[in-house]
Amino acid sequence: MLTVGRIAAQAGLSPKAVRLYEANGLIDPPERTPAGYRTYTDDAIPVLGFIRQAQALGLSLKEIKDILDLQRRGEQPCGLVTDLLDKHLADIDRRIADLQALRTTLQRARTQADQAADHGDTAVVCRIIENVIPSAS
């Protein structure tokens, strides 16, 4: 039997993470000693490793729980996993596009600021921002 500290160390996690996974139903509740200490078996270590790897791929605890629940019911979760990964890839692509658009806007603002400075233009606050965002008037 392993204490929460020992099983956490073996899985490369903090005890707080192990307790969080238990609270969210990702791992089975452990046995308790008469003093109330959690005691785990070695069987929990691979599950904790899986959770850690899934989080490294960007999966949420809810998504990981859904995967584990399928597996515990004897179903193959690979279809769900590929769907989740596709969703995360699409989200990343969308964020990259948003960042690229922001970069273009910032670069344009920087170029306009250089041009305004070369012409001696002055601004009420800052020409960089005033030229990028149209005024509300």
Polypeptide structure, described:
The chain is mainly alpha-helical. The protein has two domains: 74 residues, Multidrug-efflux Transporter Regulator, Chain: A, Domain 2 (Orthogonal Bundle); 48 residues. The chain is 65% helix and 5% strand. The protein contains six helices and three strands. The protein has a three-stranded antiparallel beta sheet. Helix 1 packs across helix 2 and helix 1 packs across helix 3. The longest helix has 41 residues. The protein starts with a strand and ends in a 5-residue tail after the last helix. The model has no long low-confidence stretch (mean pLDDT 88).
In short:
The protein has 6 helices and 3 strands; from the N terminus they run βααββαααα. It is mainly alpha-helical and 137 residues long.
Helix/strand layout:
Layout: E1 2-3, H1 4-11, H2 15-23, E2 31-32, E3 38-40, H3 44-56, H4 61-72, H5 78-118, H6 127-132
Antiparallel strand pairs: 1-3, 2-3
Helix pairs in contact: 1-2, 1-3
